[in-house]
Amino acid sequence: MNELDVVKLIKDLDDIPKGTEGTIAHKYDKTNFEAEFFDDKLDTIDVVTTSAEYLELVKTY
Fold first, then answer.
1. Calpha distance 20→39 (Å, rounded)
2. How far apart are CA 61 and CA 3, in angstroms?
3. How many C-beta atoms surround the C-beta of residue 41 within 10 A?
């Protein structure tokens, strides 16, 4: 996974439910990322730091 890739949560993360899609905003290393998650209207829900174990790659750019 790299910056600007679209990802999906594969398990709940804080108040963000499993299945929510987002974009990698920053790649810290191979397993840690800053990701921005969106609702159905593409409004930002939250920007969080998370590990790859919570993410599934949806689309690469």
1. 7
2. 8
3. 5
Mean pLDDT by 10 residues, the chain (61 residues): 97 96 98 97 96 97 84
pLDDT at residue 43, rounded to an integer: 96
* Nearest-angstrom CA–CA distance, 18 and 28: 22
Tokens coding 7: 């990802």
Q: How far apart are the C-alpha atoms of 57 and 50, rounded to whole Å?
A: 14
Q: In what order do the strands lie in the sheet with 44-51?
A: 44-51, 32-38, 21-27, 6-9, 55-59
34: left (phi over 0), alpha (psi -120 to 50) or beta: beta
| Cβ-contact 48, 1 below 8 angstroms | no
pLDDT of 61: 84
